[in-house]
Amino acid sequence: GLLVIDHNRKMKKATENPVSSKLKEYLGDFGQPGQPELEAASESSGVNSSQPDGAEDDSFLTVDLYADVREKMETIAMEDRANVVKIRAGEMAVHDEPQIPWFAAFTTYLGYAVLILYGHARDIIARLFHCGRYMRARVDFISDNKRLYAPLLKSWENFYTRRLYHRIQDCFNRPIAGPPASNLHVLERVSRDGNKTMHVLGSLKDLQSEQQRTSYEFGKHYFESKDRATRACLNLGSYNYLGFADDWLITCKKDVLASLEHLPVSSGSSRMEFGTTYLHRDVEKLVSRFLSKEDAMAYNMGFNTNATTIPALVSKGDLIVSDNLNHTSIVNGARASGASIRTFRHNDIKHLDSILREAIIMGRPRTRRPWRKILVIVEGIYSMEGEYCDLRGIVDTSKKYGAYVYLDEAHSIGAMGRTGRGICEYTGVDPSEVDILMGTFTKSFGGMGGYIASSKEVIEFLRNKSAGSLHHNALSPTVCQQIITSFKVIMGEDGTNIGKQKLQAVRDNSNYFRMRLKEMGLHVLGNYDSPIIPVMLYNPTKIAAFSRECMKRGLAVVVVGFPAVPILLSRARFCISAGHTREELDRALEEIDEVVDILKLRYEKSTFG
């Protein structure tokens, strides 16, 4: 609940900045750090979701749940931000991610070698005896004569799927029962063919042995509802950054369900035909106002926002300069555009400068004619690294050479900045300096789809040129209302301070969790203030072991391996939410610390983990 306190004394304490003035010098116009707002978390969802009638926002403040570590957290976060500016100014070397220790590299190579050799041995035996789970029965169909047809699958990709991925398939694609809130139920799955296929368990009666039934029934996190066996878990993997999945019944339900009284779930058409409703227009107006852009356009899928917009903006004779860690949707859109592509080292402003300078001087290959246009593409937060881009340096460098800037804010919009306006607000860059702003509604807004925000001329051009507007089905009107309602909560236009509390809660929770993981001696990637926190696992056997050990302890985590990341750089990725409470995070950290000891992951403290 809320604690009534002396307002003047509390606000004075809240505005005290524990960070030294020397660090402030480095920040300049990088954006102001978030002050420790004392509207923190309620016991249920991480934020206070109600306020007494007639109460002023600044008269009723909650207890700062991180008061004991506030000064330390703010100092570390400020130092982290200052380092970005130091790197840009040349006062500090470009920050590299933690290097894989020699022992971890050796065992990782050895692990893959054993898996590959063992997999090939099994394939040879299966072909010799014509038996095995991946062998089809002999039939007389001409289509089974492989000599008559080209291979449908590449040999390495097919082999990797069969002999490596299927071994740990139970760690991926886990179905859930209910909303992806801070606490959720994961449906139990079983396999009867060595993990080739996975089946939802259903009830315990479907298990094959009494021993299995007993282990489930007396398990610490076992739960059964409506003939479905589930595991109650703390959710550390979903993009529920602002916790709308936790308090949806309070914040969004009324407006979203009311929209169904006037509009259907689907428009049944593309935006250029009969798919546009007044809610689509309202979403676009709200996005453009939120981002201080002239106009915006909504898409029905975040991936397709990049994949269909980039080919509409550039084509043959144009040049795309892309960060080498950009998302697959950007890569696919760039390849489909027909434009030439150059990549620069991740977040390396000097390398970007050299590529742009060379592009201007040398022009196109062979003809040396100037490029028609140059488009620099970066992300706000990189989803596998948890780092944010040095937007100030990228914008200044791009404008120096007359290049356009395309910013993907899929993970940063709504989750970063004092008011949730993303990496532009966080780094002190005016949105007018970024030519194309892209984002998704999937993460912070509890919906689906994406948007492009830019000038009226650009948006009007995209409406008539982008495949996402011309051919794809329009965004669901129901989802449009969800987006509108969540925007109003974030902006405070719902008449509460819930949005403000959510923004502070996700920042505090993320920084606390990151700080504690680093204190454990783990290789943790990314920046403070980012809700994405990757932890390096390296060894392929530790991918499955980490996921399974966490699941045993009631922690639902995401593990990532090849091809989503380089084959040697497997990792676990935690996504922190405003819906988490400190008690939940502390419990998770205790369990993770236990798993870390079992798997030997303290690479920051020891070569052997």
Task: Give an overview in words.
- It is a single chain.
- Helices cover 39% and strands 13% of the residues.
- It is α/β, with parallel strands linked by helices.
- The strands form five sheets. A seven-stranded mixed β-sheet has the order 9-15-14-13-12-10-11, with helices on both faces. Strands 3, 4, 7, 8 and 17 form a five-stranded mixed β-sheet that branches.
- Helix 4 (102-129) crosses helix 5 (155-163) and helix 19 crosses helix 20.
- The longest helix is centred in the first third of the chain and has 28 residues, at 102-129.
- The chain is globular and about 65 Å long.
- The model is unreliable at 1-19, 32-45 and 47-61 (pLDDT under 50).
Low-confidence stretches: 1-19, 32-45, 47-61
* Sheet having the most strands: 7 strands, mixed
What percentage of residues falls in helices of 4 or more residues?
25-40%
Mean pLDDT: 87
Q: Termini, distance in Å?
A: 43 Å
> Which strands sit side by side, in order, in the main sheet?
9-15-14-13-12-10-11
Radius of gyration: 26 Å
Question: Can you tag this structure with a few keywords?
Answer:
609 residues; alpha/beta; seven-stranded mixed β-sheet; five-stranded mixed β-sheet; 20 helices; 19 strands; 39% helix; disordered N terminus
Summarize the structure.
This protein has about 600 residues and is of the alpha/beta class.
Secondary structure layout:
Blueprint (H helix, E strand, L loop, with lengths): L2 E2 L2 H9 L5 H7 L32 E2 L8 H19 L13 H28 L25 H9 L12 E2 L5 E5 L1 E2 L8 E2 L9 H8 L4 E4 L2 E8 L12 H4 L1 H7 L18 H14 L3 E5 L2 H12 L5 E5 L4 H10 L2 E5 L4 H14 L11 E6 L11 H10 L3 E5 L13 H6 L8 E5 L9 E5 L1 H10 L1 H4 L6 H15 L6 H22 L12 E7 L1 H13 L2 E2 L1 E3 L9 E6 L6 H18 L10
